[in-house]
Q: What sequence folds into this?
């Protein structure tokens, strides 16, 4: 451990830390939290999510509520997307940008009622997002409340997730859960007696649910999910599997594909920016970063995020150089891993536009040796749907 690294006593703990220790998890620092990296093996946990289900502790994420008549208007000003356009019970992927258009965080906005929104932020950025929302909501008729410390979040992800989550709820809410569409949420009562917000969202490329409960209800929910899911192949899964799953699904990770040197357009996520959004009264909305993003949209990009498929067996790593077959540096790897599902290495990288077309042969400098990769469309993996 480096002298500057946080010690276990410096790290924040989720309400489920004792459960992870009981299950023999290897814990590691992530975003200032002590989190399970793996329980058994990265490969086994990854495959369980693709084939059956995985259980994740996401209680390190931030949960910030906005309530009041101007909640939608405040979020329209604070974020790049349109909160006004989100229907009650639905959710939208969005971003918070700085005035220069750079990404401060990517997040999910849930509309719980006409005047009530929940913003879920990444763990390492949660405090920043909370502070920024308070500042950006000033002058709007809205109350911003950070409930991260009192909220636990448990995710069940995989093709058998619906069966498991339905078994966790009361019979009265079973139909609600089955009918819940992707990127939607609903309040439910769990068989444990706890109230939960069930959202059909996730970060693995599979069907799944994220269950928000009070911290005092977290252990009972976790144990109930393990008991209900074990006969169906569910296993607890850690950060390592979560990372390889999201990479296969082409989902960005803040600090890798997104950061304060990047706008949504470089990341191929310009679709989440609503330059033309209007408020409830139909008037155009000025939001933080709009001018910079409008200029960036019409400017030639200096770099483009692409997928890379390895032609050999050696995987790249984040930070490695991407080069042409002639050895000219043209980019940098942001995320990389061997793909357990596809059987070959995959990576995401920022490269110059002239080498960004699918089918372009490139290489990654892996410790002085050029390993062959080819540009491919993202995502690498897309689940089969009925």
A:
């Amino acid at each position: 451990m480096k002298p500057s690294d946080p010690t276990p006593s410096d790290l924040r703990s989720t309400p489920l830390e004792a459960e992870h220790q009981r299950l023999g998890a290897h814990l590691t620092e992530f975003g200032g939290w002590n989190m399970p990296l793996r329980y058994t093996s990265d490969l086994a946990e990854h495959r369980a999510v693709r084939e059956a289900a995985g259980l994740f502790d996401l209680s390190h994420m931030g949960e910030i509520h906005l309530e009041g008549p101007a909640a939608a208007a405040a979020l329209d000003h604070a974020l790049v997307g349109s909160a006004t356009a989100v229907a009650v019970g639905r959710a939208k992927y969005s971003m918070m940008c700085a005035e220069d258009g750079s990404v401060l965080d990517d997040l999910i906005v849930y509309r719980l009622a006409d005047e009530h929104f929940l913003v879920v932020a990444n763990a390492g950025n949660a405090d920043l997002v909370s502070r920024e929302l308070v500042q950006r909501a000033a002058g709007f008729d809205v109350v911003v409340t950070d409930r991260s410390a009192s909220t636990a979040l448990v995710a069940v992800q995989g093709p058998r997730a619906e069966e498991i989550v339905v078994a966790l709820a009361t019979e009265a809410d079973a139909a609600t859960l089955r009918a819940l569409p992707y990127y939607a949420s609903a309040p439910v009562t769990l068989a444990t007696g706890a109230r939960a917000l069930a959202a059909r969202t996730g970060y693995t490329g599979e069907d799944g649910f994220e269950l928000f409960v009070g911290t005092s209800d977290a252990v009972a929910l976790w144990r109930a999910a393990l008991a209900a899911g074990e006969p169906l192949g569910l296993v607890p899964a850690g950060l390592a599997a979560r990372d390889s799953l999201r990479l296969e699904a082409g989902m960005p990770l803040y600090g890798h594909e997104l950061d304060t040197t990047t706008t949504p357009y470089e990341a191929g996520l310009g679709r989440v920016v609503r330059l033309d959004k209007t408020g409830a009264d139909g008037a155009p909305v000025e939001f933080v970063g709009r001018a910079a993003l409008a200029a960036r949209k019409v400017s030639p990009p200096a770099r483009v995020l692409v997928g890379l498929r390895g032609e050999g067996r050696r995987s790249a790593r984040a930070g490695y150089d991407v080069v042409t077959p002639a050895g000219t540096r043209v980019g940098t790897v942001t995320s990389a891993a061997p793909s357990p599902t596809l059987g070959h290495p995959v990576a995401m990288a920022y490269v110059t536009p002239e080498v960004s077309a699918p089918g372009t042969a490139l290489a990654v400098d892996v410790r002085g040796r050029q390993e062959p990769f080819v540009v491919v469309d993202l995502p690498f993996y897309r689940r089969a749907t009925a």
